[in-house]
């Protein structure tokens, strides 16, 4: 795993990957700046109103006042991570193919994912993520537990799209991919932890895919 992590960090910071990640990340921020700017006040007031309804809950009390602004900011942050995830699913395959040929030229990486299937798994994973986030929103404000829960939710957002995109590139059948389920779960959790760092979160979807790619192909090399 240490060798795969080293390769992944080297890849993600290379000129093969870095321009793409920054373009997708900055583009995703720009996409949300204008709509969030127009509805920002409404989002903040909505959070304050929700906090008022649940003032009996200790973990929600700090949402009143200025802290609701930061909660609204975090909502925007979540929207950006979703957009980065979807954009990577659409345009990231060429980068994965290039890296596979660079590190493992003797191994075949001739498969190709269908964009509509990739989007399906991405939207499905993001739908689960948003639904669980909304249903369990108060948990996020419980010290320590909230961070761990958010980490798990982000791993849900990452895992299934990563498995599909890498599996499709390597032309792997469903049964073979199931053998890597535990590995993909740990990789998703590791990648999800990077979402806590602004700007670094731009790298998360592609980081997970590259690490999963190395984890599979390194065993075949």
Short description:
This protein is mainly α and 221 residues long.
Q: Can you put this structure into words, describing what you see?
A:
With 221 residues, the chain is mostly helical. It has nine helices and no strands. The chain has one domain. Helix 1 packs across helix 9 and helix 8 packs antiparallel against helix 9.
Key features?
221 residues; single chain; mainly alpha; 9 helices
Write the layout of secondary structure elements.
Layout: H1 2-12, H2 18-53, H3 67-91, H4 93-103, H5 115-135, H6 145-169, H7 174-178, H8 181-193, H9 204-220
Helix pairs in contact: 1-9, 2-3, 3-5, 5-6, 6-8, 6-9, 8-9
Give start-end ranges of low-pLDDT stretches: 53-66
Q: Would you count the extended β strands for me?
A: 0
User: Biggest β-sheet: count, sense, barrel?
Assistant: none
Number of helices: 9
Radius of gyration: 19 Å
Q: Helices and strands, in N-to-C order?
A: HHHHHHHHH
Structural domain tally: 1
Helicity range: over 70%
The overall pLDDT, averaged over residues, is 82
Specify the overall morphology: globular
Coarse structural class: mainly alpha
Strand content: under 5%
**First and last CA, distance:** 14 Å
């Amino acid at each position: 795993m240490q060798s795969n992590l080293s390769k992944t960090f080297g890849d993600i910071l290379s000129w093969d990957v870095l321009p793409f990640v920054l373009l997708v990340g900055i583009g995703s921020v720009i996409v949300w700046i204008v709509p969030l700017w127009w509805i920002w006040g409404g989002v903040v007031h909505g959070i304050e109103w929700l906090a008022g309804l649940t003032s009996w809950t200790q973990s929600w009390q700090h949402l009143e006042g200025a802290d609701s602004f930061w909660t609204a900011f975090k909502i925007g942050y979540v929207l950006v991570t979703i957009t980065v995830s979807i954009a990577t699913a659409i345009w990231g395959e060429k980068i994965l193919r290039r890296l596979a040929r660079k590190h493992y030229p003797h191994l075949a990486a001739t498969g190709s994912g269908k964009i509509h299937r990739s989007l399906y798994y991405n939207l499905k994973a993001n739908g689960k993520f948003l639904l669980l986030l909304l249903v369990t929103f108060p948990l996020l404000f419980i010290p320590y537990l909230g961070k761990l829960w958010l980490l798990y939710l982000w791993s849900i957002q990452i895992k299934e799209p990563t498995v599909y995109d890498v599996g499709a590139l390597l032309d792997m059948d469903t049964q073979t991919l199931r053998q890597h389920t535990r590995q993909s779960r740990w990789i998703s959790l590791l990648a999800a932890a990077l979402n806590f760092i602004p700007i670094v979160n731009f790298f998360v979807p592609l980081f997970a895919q590259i690490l999963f790619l190395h984890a599979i192909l390194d065993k075949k090399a």
